Amino acid sequence: MAGSRYAYVKSFEIADPLLPSTFFVVRIDGKGFHGFSKLHDFDKPNDVRALNLMNEAARRVVGGRELNGECVVAFGESDEYSFVFKRTCRLHGRRASKIVTLVVSVFTAAYTALWPQFFPNSPLALDHLPVFDGRVVQYTNELEIQDYLRWRQVDTHINNMYNTVFWALVLQGGRTEQQAEQELRGTISSQKQEILFSQFGINYNTVDAMFRKGSIVIWEEVPPTETKEPGHKVEPVTPEPASTPPQPAPPADSPAPITTMRQRKKPPKPKRRLVIVHEDLIADAWWAEGRGKGLLDG
Amino acid sequence: MAGSRYAYVKSFEIADPLLPSTFFVVRIDGKGFHGFSKLHDFDKPNDVRALNLMNEAARRVVGGRELNGECVVAFGESDEYSFVFKRTCRLHGRRASKIVTLVVSVFTAAYTALWPQFFPNSPLALDHLPVFDGRVVQYTNELEIQDYLRWRQVDTHINNMYNTVFWALVLQGGRTEQQAEQELRGTISSQKQEILFSQFGINYNTVDAMFRKGSIVIWEEVPPTETKEPGHKVEPVTPEPASTPPQPAPPADSPAPITTMRQRKKPPKPKRRLVIVHEDLIADAWWAEGRGKGLLDG
Amino acid sequence: MAGSRYAYVKSFEIADPLLPSTFFVVRIDGKGFHGFSKLHDFDKPNDVRALNLMNEAARRVVGGRELNGECVVAFGESDEYSFVFKRTCRLHGRRASKIVTLVVSVFTAAYTALWPQFFPNSPLALDHLPVFDGRVVQYTNELEIQDYLRWRQVDTHINNMYNTVFWALVLQGGRTEQQAEQELRGTISSQKQEILFSQFGINYNTVDAMFRKGSIVIWEEVPPTETKEPGHKVEPVTPEPASTPPQPAPPADSPAPITTMRQRKKPPKPKRRLVIVHEDLIADAWWAEGRGKGLLDG
Amino acid sequence: MAGSRYAYVKSFEIADPLLPSTFFVVRIDGKGFHGFSKLHDFDKPNDVRALNLMNEAARRVVGGRELNGECVVAFGESDEYSFVFKRTCRLHGRRASKIVTLVVSVFTAAYTALWPQFFPNSPLALDHLPVFDGRVVQYTNELEIQDYLRWRQVDTHINNMYNTVFWALVLQGGRTEQQAEQELRGTISSQKQEILFSQFGINYNTVDAMFRKGSIVIWEEVPPTETKEPGHKVEPVTPEPASTPPQPAPPADSPAPITTMRQRKKPPKPKRRLVIVHEDLIADAWWAEGRGKGLLDG
């Protein structure tokens, strides 16, 4: 074929598989969002519309066909989102660049396409489009993945506490940004809460949970009664991922599974849907009894 | 700090730098574009609007602030685009995942945001957004990068020749897709051209160059006269990238360069702008005398 | 410094760390040992001297100062050896090439230096020295590492069964090598055992366990009575590795541990020594109650 | 097969190919050679026997069958050695760990086996064997590889200059090591030469070139007259490596080369042998007209 004399350049593509049985996270971050948020006049310290848009874009990633339902939970704060995959995930041969670019692309497309719904009066500028970079990080066991999510939620907490007091001082307290920064230097959490309460009458614990705890995108089963109700619309319900084998990679020459000719009818799989919640996942309770229970199994 | 007990998870982030002085290409590919093109009823064998949209999105990538003007040329065909960077590129510390995700994200955002301009009557569906994956490939010298681009253009040629005849047979010749496929099996280039000409009166060489050769996004200097003309608008003109040192990485302990106190005035750098052309870059002439001359130097 | 203008070449060294908390194996293989074993007239199907030399070289690796006592078990068969490290191992910053080259080098040096003790009448030829290559493989949990070792022991079993019958047919049964190969084609384990027993009176289960099960180099505690006996020499007893933290990587900004001024005296750590055994590590019992118990903990 | 249920662990082996057309260097370093050199009472500042042993071991690596004659030059100083491979090298599929471990193993075996010839009165201790680690570094063009070798030779020069004066001060000048260190602090090259000459009558330029410039192991052609002389023994002469294609990887579907049935007789390839020289490779002359000419071509 005419092109073959140049085809040698394809040999420079080097495979980049993840290890066969690691858990992994794809974390995306807004690029230049400081300027972007100014351009669109985001509320300080948190813009509800912008956070809801992030959440909705994340829901499109987790529930979208590109990930085949294999992302089990996502966590977001500010302009970043983390997507968590189980050790049994076989998506795209576990090729790192394939997976990370797909997540970034679906997120970016959704964020851009959904923008007008959340910011109807502030259209995107073609030379200042929302852009995200991404990376993939591997972990070896459930505790590490739990701690990864705890790390992000603690980060949410620390940043939000600071920003809440900072912007109260500036917006309500009449300080300059420099004064506010200096006033907060070296303060610990309880002191910041005290400033908030004594000067501005704000009880930090009543601040919107989405601001304090970030957002969790997670699957939940749809109760059978709900799915049967005529006319009831559940959206989006994605199909269960194909069941994955317990072994990280099946032996090449394993015997074919023995099956009877008459397959027994399986009970129908429960439908599931994505929900967005703002819960404390730092405490063990969330993992032992809450939505995190069994999340990383299998 | 409260979060420090979980911060160990950050140590799982492993650096993925490109080699310090390789040329490299980021190639992106549409994901599931067969279905996407059906959904939006793309013309066969080529949809001019779709190709122009790809080109415009690519121009936003090459000229956008995210790449700092460091992408020197891009080549596109169908639903793929290749972005070429020189060996001296120091963008984002040459971190592979950072660079590849940024390119994919800017491209996706531009494609999504520009869509209504190119397909005003076929709005995007939120559950079928345009998605691209990407990879980065390193090369060691100019010839390999030239051959990379030749490889893509030969691919464009082969695919377009086939598709042009195939769809002529189907759309004008009344064959089914199966019949057309069978009729073309084993034919060589000259035979396909003969079918095109004898049955449909089409001289392949007069087919739109964009279809036959793909699209090249490349910088060109703006003539001084043009930039000085009052009221003349040149868009987009991005700043020259900061000049890069000839050495791939400056020695850590090199002495500071000696400079005189009175810096001489440099002549102003020529302005440049991006153009989209459909030229033959397989022949040496393009590299020796055409737009490719000096493209990969320095 | 005079050399600085060339020091940029150092920037081409790219880090290759293992993930922070994987288990890993360094496996080395003899290079060209078919010819090497002919040159030194190794016994067929197994050469006791050669296997003992492999074991002794492996013991020097596991117990040597280079690995700091961090290799917890090694398994050998034929001309290969696998060295297993726990997830908490921090040796040499977990740099892959550093670790794998050190293991290969220590093994090669020991094999070469010990050779005359095991083959006093067959001196090494300078142009046919024993050479080993190596690789490092990461695993995410204990079961995978256990299965890795099981995989090697099953391999030992299969190879030795075949070789034992093959060489009995050739050396005692008067077949040519081709005849023996043909005679064994398609036979299963029980048939091979039957040939061995009926034709050569050999009960496979009485074959030397080192041949059937391979060799395990493993630490065991030295009973206190034994170490206290005057004049008793225990060799080699390497020091315990420095205790490693339970977390795969300590948070950078963790508070300093609180210590009292008067440190309590710790009870002396039990001494340990390396033993070489030929046990079945495929069965769960070895891991639940045998030497494998607790081996991979912590 | 019985072992198949564990064979999945093999899937954890991840490929580590070098890029298809980089030049690369394998550099090995003595591990703990400070102690090793004390144990065997190496002369200060340089031990001729130890350097000759390093050189001879390196010659065994470069000329040995394991590298198939594909290492084109090696450079050594002190307890380190660098082995240089051309961009066309296809050894072992360019697998990084395979290549680096082979080099380390051959070097270690040769160093250990040759030891008694160089240190007949100081036998190796089994618990202090000579050990080397290794790494592989890739470069994209000839200049970088030249600069790599210049970097090592400048390093040789700087270290040797310092050590020569330091040990003159200590061994001949009666200083303590601390005094010598202090006396040399901050001195530049010309000052060190002045101390050497004025205090000890040593002209630095007359110091053994092996100490000042390091050692180069390189191939040279054997003149035909020499090879024809009866009884003349040239050792070792390794065969030329199989000629490699100019393209880094041949296209998969390239047509078979056309050959005539009667192959013409090729003129016999010139024989070549390894020599060890101590030349200046920093100056361009060595590369333009000296032994470096054409060294990295093809």
Automatic annotation (TrEMBL), chains A, B, C, D:
Which GO MF terms does the UniProt record name? Answer: GTP binding; magnesium ion binding; tRNA guanylyltransferase activity
Q: Which residues bind Mg(2+) 2?
A: 29, 79
Bilayer-crossing regions: 96-115
In short, the EC number is 2.7.7.79
* InterPro entries registered for this protein in UniProt: Thg1_C_dom, tRNAHis_GuaTrfase_cat, tRNAHis_GuaTrfase_Thg1, tRNAHis_GuaTrfase_Thg1_sf
User: Which residue numbers delimit the tRNAHis guanylyltransferase catalytic domain?
Assistant: 6-139
Q: Name one GO biological process term.
A: tRNA modification
Similarity remark:
Belongs to the tRNA(His) guanylyltransferase family.
Protein name in UniProt:
tRNA(His) guanylyltransferase
